[in-house]
Amino acid sequence: MTKAFCLICSTYRKKRDRRSFFKVPECNIYSNSIEKELIERRRAEWLKLSKRNYNISQLFVCSDHFVSGKPAYV
Questions:
Q1: What's the pLDDT score for residue 51?
Q2: How confident is the model at residue 36 (pLDDT cuts 50, 70, 90)?
Q3: What is the pTM of this model?
Q4: What range(s) does the THAP-type domain occupy (predicted)?
Q5: Helix (H, G, I), strand (E, B) or coil at 52
Q6: Distance in Å from the first CA to the final CA of the chain
Q7: Would you tell me how many other CB atoms lie within 10 Å of the CB of residue 13?
Q8: What are the beta bridge partners of residue 6?
Q9: Closest Cα to residue 49, out of 60, 38, 37?
Q10: How far is Cα 29 from Cα 46, in angstroms, rounded to an integer?
């Protein structure tokens, strides 16, 4: 299991943490062209907020960085 790490504030999920961690959006084979464009824009914005350049496949952002506590649906 991958340990969740927030790419914006550089914190790891702890056992009794009340934060939720959400994966940085990725396009999949089932996404249509409009969804792909939206996902790519969101991914670029999330990665811009990152303090470093990460080369890991599973990137997360914690709920502290969302107004509602979770990302918007596609």
A1: 65
A2: confident
A3: 0.62
A4: 8-66
A5: coil
A6: 26
A7: 15
A8: 60
A9: 60
A10: 21
Query: How far is the CA of 46 from the CAs of 1, 8, 15, 16, 36, in angstroms?
Result: 23, 8, 25, 25, 15
CB 28 within 8 A of CB 34: no
**Burial class of residue 16, CB neighbours in 10 A (0-12, 13-18, 19+):** exposed
Task: Determine contact, residues 26/69, Cβ cutoff 8 Å.
Answer: no
CB 12, CB 4: distance < 8 Å = yes
What does the pLDDT read at residue 2?
Answer: 58
Give the mean pLDDT of the chain: 76
Distance, CA of 52 to CA of 31 (rounded, Å): 28
38 vs 29, which has greater pLDDT?
38
- Token pair recorded at residue 57: 């496949």
Q: Residue 6 corresponds to which tokens in the numbers above?
A: 């927030």
Amino acid at 23: K
